[in-house]
Amino acid sequence: TVAAVVEYGKQWYQRRVRAGTCEYNSRSCSRGYRKSGKCYVATGADLYTADLAKAIRNKIAEVTGEMPHLIVNTLHRSRLDPNRELEEASQGDPNSERSFNTYHGFIGEAHKLAKQNAVPGIHFDIHGYASHKDLWFELGYLIDNDDLDDNNIRSSASSIRSLASRVPLSFNEILRGHSSLGGRFQSAGYKSVPSPRYPGPGSGIHGKYYRGGYTTRRWGSRDGGNIDAIQIEFPPEPRKGWREHGPKIGAIIGEFVNEHYQPHVLCASPDGSC
Questions:
Q1: Cβ count near 48 (within 10 Å)
Q2: Contact yes or no for 215/145 (Cβ under 8 A)
Q3: For the chain, percent helix, then strand, then coil, each to nearest 5?
Q4: CA-to-CA distance for 165 and 23, rounded, in angstroms?
Q5: For residue 154, what is the DSSP state?
Q6: Contact 230, 140 (CB under 8 A)
Q7: What is the DSSP letter of 47?
Q8: Mind listing the pLDDT tens digit for each residue in 16-43?
Q9: How far apart are CA 271 and CA 170, in angstroms?
Q10: Model confidence over 171-180: pLDDT tens digits?
Q11: Which residues contact 248 (CB under 8 A, 6 or more apart)?
């Protein structure tokens, strides 16, 4: 098990908050908006996400027989958002940059251990969003909203490229068919996108959806390798009710892992004992 717990002092954080801003200088703003030559970024916290992730992880271990690695960023989002490029995530602060590199360094170590077994792996990047009318699970595979709605989907552009290359299923089925992760959530009563019922964000009310961020791009299989990645954005209810929903969600993910990966040979403990 690998867990990342990173902390640093309050001085930089207090300076930014007292000024009433969270900003940085850059030529481009990936997700924030530009004002007076500076990029402004979101600072809201993903409440109860760590609790949900731990409950999911424990159930995955029960279902698969192997304990997944768990890397948790314990810093508030106003201090660090490690799901962004370094410049945007750290805003030029050296302490934040060090924390960013520590967090992704732990992920790198976990991936390195998994790769030693030469079998496919899967990385779930778990997040939460405040609220919108659709209240669905947003499963991010690096495919744009419009491409999902227009059925312009290519496995080579996705973060599960490795999975798509080795299973005898169409990419549409893997992505949003009944056997997909979204299809499994749907069968369990969870509203999810993409899924058979909601193949793209345009099939919802507000159509809000996040395709996946920096972590999914960096650590998924789009650019090579055999470790896939899926970012999951959870609405408030399953996070607040993590004691109830964590085991249910973990069981669904665990069965998905059992079918498409080989957890019994994916032992990634440093001493070889899982």
A1: 17
A2: no
A3: 40, 10, 45
A4: 41
A5: -
A6: yes
A7: T
A8: 433 334 444 444 455 444 444 455 555 5
A9: 38
A10: 999 999 999 9
A11: 59, 188
The predicted model gives 5-21 an average pLDDT of 35
Name which of 187, 272, 265, 181 is nearest 231 in CA terms: 181
Instruction: Report yes or no: 31 and 229 within 8 Å, Cβ to Cβ.
Output: no
First to last CA, the chain: 9
* CA–CA dist 265, 254 (Å, integer): 15
Which pair of structure tokens corresponds to residue 246?
């964590």
Residue 241 CB partners (closer than 8 Å, separation 6+): none
- Dihedral sign for Cα atoms in the order 258, 262, 268, 274: positive
Mean pLDDT, range 59-76, rounded to an integer: 92
Is residue 81 within 8 Å of 14, Cβ to Cβ? no
CA distance readout (Å), 72 to 63, 229, 246, 255: 22, 16, 16, 23
Q: Which residues neighbour 194 within 8 Å (Cβ) at sequence distance 6 or greater? A: 139, 141, 148, 175, 176, 180, 182, 200
Cβ-contact 110, 72 below 8 angstroms:
no
Distances (CA, A) of 174 to 142, 153, 164, 186, 266: 14, 11, 7, 14, 21
Please state which of the ranges 23-37, 162-176, 184-198, 207-221 shows the lowest mean pLDDT. Answer: 23-37
Q: Which two tokens stand for residue 40?
A: 């402004």
CA distance 232 to 215: 12
